[in-house]
Amino acid sequence: MVGMWSLFREIDQSRTTWAIKARAIRVYREPAHDCFPESLEVVFHDEEGSKMHAHIPDQFINKFIGIFKDGHLFAVKNFMVEENYMFFKTSTSAYRLRFLTKVLHLRSRGFHSP
């Protein structure tokens, strides 16, 4: 843990009170297909360079669409952690994040990118 922020290697499904500070390295909309509705997807890296995928379900896209931008730093607390069951994975993590909560856009000072 770096101060109050957890690193991705520490995150698991044991609780919902995690707090992360991470940089968005890829933000994209996934169009609806087959039986899956549209979603917003974000790939993050933490201060150690570990990557984790975040999924935002269709009913929350409007809440987050203007917030996440490639290359920007964010603080996120109290999110869900679920198994990374995606067929095409954007990270090697066993988990992915599901955001239904508040996200803060941060200035980059004090965040060391690998």
UniProtKB/TrEMBL annotation:
<dbReference type="InterPro" id="IPR012340">
    <property type="entry name" value="NA-bd_OB-fold"/>
</dbReference>
<feature type="domain" description="Replication protein A 70 kDa DNA-binding subunit B/D first OB fold">
    <location>
        <begin position="9"/>
        <end position="102"/>
    </location>
</feature>
<dbReference type="Pfam" id="PF02721">
    <property type="entry name" value="DUF223"/>
</dbReference>
<protein>
    <recommendedName>
        <fullName>Replication protein A 70 kDa DNA-binding subunit B/D first OB fold domain-containing protein</fullName>
    </recommendedName>
</protein>
<dbReference type="InterPro" id="IPR003871">
    <property type="entry name" value="RFA1B/D_OB_1st"/>
</dbReference>
